[in-house]
Protein 1
Amino acid sequence: AWLARHGSSPLGFDTETRPVFTKGQSRAPATLQLAGEGTCLVIHLAHLELDSAGGWPPGLVDVLQNRSILKAGVGVADDAIELWESYGYELCGRVELGGVHTDETARRQQLGLKALAKTFLGVEVPKSAAITKSNWEASPLQTKQLVYAALDSWVGREVFVALGKLEPSFTQPSAQRTAASERSIPELYARRLARKAVRAQFETLDSALLQQVRHEAEGPGKLPRHGAKSQRARMRAVRQHVGALRQECARVLACDDLLQLYVAPPPPQTSVQMAGAPEEGVFDTEVD
């Protein structure tokens, strides 16, 4: 019922996953959130009632896979990959907001939802570590969990709408781009693996360089005192340079799929009303 009433573009999108504290382990996303105008749907995937064929409700699948229905958020590609790996469904119509920036000198710095909400909506989004690390697979979810989950998806949609008002050319090109050239989830997954391999190579290089620096600095002292000091200074400078290069390459790799868009920040607001923000009871948990 919710999807029939509110499942039109644009939607805010997010997921929540039960945390794991053992390296190398992971869990499937436990919730999926969609936000429409003034309303949010929190789907408890960990306890979702499947259809007769053992799949998700067709209405939900249709919305998720419809490229013309935009789903905006931060880290959307990562969430989409986790959904695909865990449940086999592709999320289409993805709009990544993390590449939006208000500082033209910081084009490769990804913004989080909290920073986006502060900049473009003028609201402070509370982030509770206790709720973030809570058990999202438990049933029923607590009210504070539902509000927390709904708020993240609401921020995604409202930031997207606000960007359209500040930069009118933003919304329509987003729809055209996602429909024409959106990468498939398997392709995104392959690119993620390639990035991990490149990062591992940089980390190996950095480790080897550090060992070389230590070897030169702590060697047998064959160089004169002033020569040894100069050598250590040169090696330190080289290591700093390579380290900075590694970090920059990692940022570029991480932001490769981000929509890079500069938007002038809105003027400061003296008073802010969180109109339409989800509060207790202002969300739905029905999927049909």
Note: Residues 269-283 have pLDDT under 50 and may be disordered.
Protein 2
Amino acid sequence: APTGGSRLLTRIALALHALDGLPALRATIAAGRCTPHEATQRFTQAIAALLALVFEAADIATDPAISRLLVALFNLMQGKEFAGQERAAGAAAFAAGRANAAANARHPAEPDLLHLIETQEACFARFAAFCPPEVRSAWDAACQAMPLAELERLRRKLLAAGKGGALPSALAEPWFACCSARLDHLRVIEDLLAGGLRAACAARIAALQRDPDDPEVLMCALAGGADAAPVFLAGGADELAGAPGEGDEPGTGQTAIAPGAERPAAVPGRLELAADPFGPRLTRSLVDVLHAQSCRLQAMGEELAAVRASLDERKLIDRAKAALMRHQGLSEDAAYRLMRQTAMNQGRRLPDVARAVLELEAFLPGVASAG
């Protein structure tokens, strides 16, 4: 399997290749040689390459603060992409005067609007959980400024129309303007978060270029709390942060040793505090900081694992949709609805249904086998 660095380089190459193809795509669209559905799919593929790059960077980052920022940025970008797809799907439906008409060879069905709404809201919830406080404050302010009430009113019209239901075409422009205003606010938050990420990376690079043996530099790095680099210790965290016990010297947390007495033997795997160059008071502060940081790193690892699991489940569902599209001739939206309905009927999770589809793919008849 490729290492984290090689995977990141591969993602960078794929992202650059997707960006290089945009001028030709725009020229094709301007010349009228590309349908709206095809254009949307190609833009979606380019954005997916960029999203995969951000996720790969978050996956291999070793600094917890940088990882949190990357995970927040990934979810914000992904939610923003789903919001853009919702804008395109709704505008097409309003302009056609009919809600998400049935697919055919010339007019493939638009994505499921309800699915787009649910997925983007889930992305924004994860973004809010990982973003720093200053970005969260800006996000709350942006949500207040977004035309969410108007968006919900137009969403209800789209959803109430049902499959193939009539829609007022005059609402196409108001829908597009409303969604665009929301996307503009999302872009402001995205720029703010990206700026914070650049500043955090620059600070970490500068810290790594300083003398690692300087105690003041070490304390500054550790005092940063979540902004500090991860530190791994041989001993258990509970051993390091234990309260001063009986016989400790007042104010130091160190056991008093009578003159002429031998020091107790070192305990394997335990961090010895007496021989460090910082002094007992500074050492105890270091231990407290390291213990708190260890707890944060454990929580961060669990959060990152949850995000990776979410992304893996999405990939699994996408593969299952592709299998149903190949073998049953379904549109992407129809394949998703079929799996979702099956999951509801059987009381199973959607990823479990997707996994079952992939396991049985070899036995599926249909379009692919017919050639």
Note: Residues 280-328 form the longest helix (49 residues).
Protein 3
Amino acid sequence: KTLEEMTVSELETFATYKGVSLKGISKKADIIKKLREELSVEETENEVDYGSPTMVGLLNE
């Protein structure tokens, strides 16, 4: 999924996984903006994977 396709809950989980604090941020657009500010283009512009490789593999099956 791209950031725009993710739910707020998924974005919050992704931010936690990447170590990005979302304190005081609750709107989807603001979360996406913060992630883009904190992370590299490669991490935010492509399909986002997070979780263990095993779980990512299982989810894709």
Note: The chain has one domain: 3-60.
